[in-house]
Write a structure and sequence with these properties.
Elements lengths: L1 H12 L3 H8 L3 H9 L6 H10 L16 E3 L9 H24 L14 E3 L2 H14 L10 H7 L3 E5 L7 E8 L2 E9 L4 H16 E3 L5 H13 L2 H11 L5 H11 L3 H10 L5 H13 L18 H11 L5 H7 L4 H8 L41 E2 L3
Helix pairs in contact: 1-3, 1-5, 2-3, 5-14, 6-9, 8-9, 12-13, 15-16
C-alpha cells in the first residue's frame, strides 16, 4: 500500500525516480524498491518522502476505493506521456479523497443517464435536438444556465478541477467504483469562466451523445456545447430581438447572459446559418488584429468552482464526524493551514446533509464559503480539487 502511494504521488508530481531520490537523499534504486513493495521506509524516511512529495502522512495509509481510471473520450494527444500520467494520477488522488468522504458519511453517489441518453447522432441536426431534449429532461427550459458546474453536481456527476497543465482544457473519465463504472468530469482551473463552461459542456456532450456515423466526435461535442449553453430557439429569439443588427457590444451582452465567449457565439451563429461565412471570417480577423483571441474585450465572465466535495468534508468536520487531521488530508491541505481556516467550524451547529447529498451543503458560520485551492503539504504546484 505505501509503495503504491509513493508511486502515485510521484507520478502526480511529474517526477522521475531520480528526481524524487535527490529530494529525499536516497538512491533511485531504493525509491524503486519502496514503490515495488520490496522494502518499506521507516518512519523518518517516510516523513522525508512525504515532504518531498508535498503530502500529508495520512495519504500513505489511505484505503484504495476505486479500480481502473481512464480517459473516457479525449485527453489531448500532444500532451507528453509524463504529463498524461500526472493528470491521471492527480485525478485518481482527488477521486479517492472524494470517495472516502462519501464512504465516511455513508453516501453512495451514482450518476444515472436520463432515458434516451446517450442520444444517437447521425447528423449534426441531431445534436441540436439532443441538447434541447436533455434540457427538457432536466427541466431547465431554454433560459441561460446560471451555474453549469452546480447543475451537473446536482445531477449526480462528480466534478473537479485540475491546475498546472497548460494544454489541458477538460476531460471526461470512466472510473471503476466497486462493481460499476461511473463518469467523472474534470476541467482546468485558472481559465476564464466562459472557456471553462464550454469545456464542461463539451465533455458533457461526449457523455450524452452516441455518434453513429462518420462525424468527427470532437466537432459533434463542440456543437453540443454551443447548443446546450445557447439552444437554437433561444438564439433565434435573441437575433430576432436584435433586428438582425449584431454589434460587438451585443456580443459582449450575449457572452455575459449565456456564459459563452464572443468567439463561441460567432461559431454558434455561423453553424445555425444566421451569419455568412464571410461575416464570421471578418469578425475573427478583427479579433486576431486586436489581440482578442486569448483575452476578449469587456468584463471577463467569472469562473465556476465545484462545491460538493468541499461541503461534504466541512460538514463532516463541523459535526465532528472526522478529525482536523483527516479533514486536512482529505482537502490536501497542511494541518495548520486547514486549522487556521476552519477551526471555527468545529462543533458548530445547523449543518444539514440533505436532498440526497447532491446539492451543496449550507454552512451558516463558514468564513470561507468558496471552494479553496487544495495543495499537498503547504506548497503544491499542481493541485487537484473538487468543490464541495
Amino acid at each position: 500500500m505505501i509503495g503504491e502511494r509513493i508511486h502515485a504521488a510521484r507520478k502526480a508530481q511529474g517526477l522521475s525516480l531520480r528526481a524524487l531520490a535527490e529530494r529525499v537523499g536516497l538512491s533511485h534504486e531504493m525509491i524503486r524498491r519502496y514503490e515495488r513493495g520490496e522494502a518499506t521506509p521507516d518512519g523518518a524516511t517516510l516523513i522525508k518522502i512525504a515532504d518531498a512529495l508535498e503530502r500529508n502522512l495520512d495519504y500513505f495509509f489511505r484505503p484504495a476505493l476505486l479500480g481502473e481510471i481512464k480517459p473516457a473520450f479525449r485527453l489531448k494527444r500532444k500532451l507528453p506521456a509524463r504529463q498524461r500520467a500526472a493528470i491521471l494520477a492527480q485525478v485518481q488522488d482527488w477521486l479517492e479523497r472524494y470517495l472516502l468522504i462519501e464512504s465516511i458519511l455513508g453516501l453512495e453517489t451514482r450518476f444515472e443517464f436520463p432515458e434516451g441518453f446517450p442520444y444517437p447522432v447521425r447528423q449534426m441536426e441531431d445534436v441540436e435536438d439532443a441538447a434541447v431534449a436533455l434540457r427538457n429532461t432536466w427541466q431547465l427550459g431554454l433560459d441561460p444556465i446560471a451555474n453549469l458546474t452546480e447543475l451537473l453536481e446536482e445531477r449526480g456527476l462528480r466534478v473537479g478541477m485540475l491546475l498546472g497543465f497548460e494544454a489541458f482544457d477538460g476531460c471526461a473519465f470512466e472510473v471503476e467504483i466497486g462493481s460499476h463504472r461511473q463518469p467523472v468530469l474534470m476541467y482546468a482551473e485558472g481559465c476564464p469562466g466562459d472557456r471553462q463552461r464550454f469545456s464542461i459542456a463539451h465533455e458533457l456532450g461526449h457523455l450524452m451523445l452516441r455518434v453513429e456515423s462518420d462525424l468527427d466526435e470532437e466537432k459533434v461535442a463542440n456543437r453540443f456545447a454551443g447548443a446546450f449553453l445557447a439552444p437554437k430557439p433561444s438564439v433565434l429569439r435573441e437575433i430576432t430581438e436584435l433586428g438582425n443588427m449584431l454589434t460587438l457590444s451585443e456580443l459582449m451582452r450575449l457572452k455575459q447572459k449565456y456564459g459563452m465567449s464572443m468567439q463561441a457565439w460567432i461559431h454558434r451563429l455561423r453553424e445555425l446559418q444566421l451569419i455568412s461565412k464571410e461575416s464570421a471570417s471578418r469578425t475573427f480577423k478583427l479579433f486576431r488584429e486586436r489581440g482578442w483571441l486569448k483575452t476578449e474585450p469587456g468584463t471577463p465572465y467569472p469562473p465556476e468552482s465545484p462545491r460538493r466535495f468541499l461541503s461534504l468534508v466541512l460538514a463532516a468536520y463541523e459535526e465532528e464526524v472526522i478529525t482536523t487531521s483527516r479533514a486536512s488530508e482529505l482537502l490536501n491541505l497542511s494541518y495548520h493551514e486547514f486549522y487556521n481556516r476552519y477551526a471555527c467550524l468545529r462543533g458548530g451547529s445547523g449543518v444539514a446533509l440533505c436532498r440526497g447529498y447532491k446539492r451543496a451543503v449550507r454552512f451558516k458560520h463558514s468564513p470561507h464559503p468558496n471552494p479553496l485551492r487544495t495543495r499537498g503539504g503547504s506548497h503544491s504546484s499542481s493541485p487537484v480539487h473538487g468543490g464541495g
